[in-house]
Amino acid sequence: MLRINNLVLTVTDPDTGQQTEILHGNSFELAQGEALGLVGESGSGKSMTLKCVLGIEPPGARVTGAIELDGTDMLTASGEALRKIRANDLALIAQNPHGALNPVLPVERFLIEGMSDARSKDKKTARVLAADLLRQVGIDDTERVLRSYPHQLSGGLLQRVVIAGAISGDPKLLLADEPTTALDVTTQAEVVAILDEKRREHGLSMVFVTHDLDLAAAVCDRLAVMKDGEIVEIGTPEEIRDHPETEYTRNLMAARPMLYPKGHPAAFLSENKEAQA
Ligand SMILES: Nc1ncnc2c1ncn2[C@@H]1O[C@H](COP(=O)(O)OP(=O)(O)O)[C@@H](O)[C@H]1O
Ligand SMILES: [Mg+2]
């Protein structure tokens, strides 16, 4: 459903005019319903790759290659076609959920505004639907949360709200950029589990960006390892774990910042290490 071919991103320094190539000709494909992890160190180009898909690369940047979503090349599509694709087919879940919500509006408004027109016509119905959305992401005290302003809620709760909002728009492709990095480990596990569950329920495709190899292995069907703006290998979590092709991937495996305890959803890589030892 998503096909990225030879993606090159070049940015221009607005002061000096100097051009820097940030992404060096990356290609990958994503099947319907598949989750692909983009994994790599900070600065390896993960977020920039998502920005290219969303069409929000820095001003003055040049993107070449192809980014096709269900056959439409987003790099050559017309403004109107693009606007439609971005509004209807893509949903971004970013690291900081506060960025996704208007700070002066209650959660209720965020959820209702994200719904398609037909459903939000009648205010009462829309509110019932909003409460239902919250229940779907494991939030039970829906009245309180609907009435709350973003700053009154914890990051974990708010990220669930963002996931609920993303799903309600019925997108084709979820783009998640370090969606749990700002959360503590326990909340992280819960939010990842919800994201994973909802994605599967709705049959959505997802590109999941993280510096955390374990987390990516837990939720993704395949992993693409990024280094300095380049995808250096792509494989299933098992392939990456058992036969990493590059030194860089081996180092990433060895230098994982946090080892998840057995039983944690992200303990996949660690558990095999134990088994092999
Ligand atoms: N707004 C920007 N303008 C120019 N270069 C940028 C900008 N944002 C990030 N970069 C550069 O692009 C590269 C990739 O960054 P990014 O995609 O954010 O990395 P990651 O998400 O993997 O941590 C880095 O070298 C970074 O310095
Ligand atoms: Mg990033």
TrEMBL record:
Its main location: membrane. It comes from the Bacteria. It is a peripheral membrane protein. Belongs to the ABC transporter superfamily. Transmembrane segments: none annotated. Residues 2-253 form the ABC transporter domain. The keyword Methyltransferase does not apply. GO terms for cellular component: plasma membrane. Pfam families: ABC_tran. Keywords: ATP-binding, Cell inner membrane, Cell membrane, Membrane, Nucleotide-binding, Translocase, Transport. InterPro entries: AAA+_ATPase, ABC_Ni/Peptide_Import, ABC_transporter-like_ATP-bd, P-loop_NTPase. The keyword Lipoprotein does not apply. It is found in: Cell membrane. GO terms for molecular function: ATP binding; ATP hydrolysis activity. This is ABC transporter ATP-binding protein. Gene3D superfamilies: P-loop containing nucleotide triphosphate hydrolases.
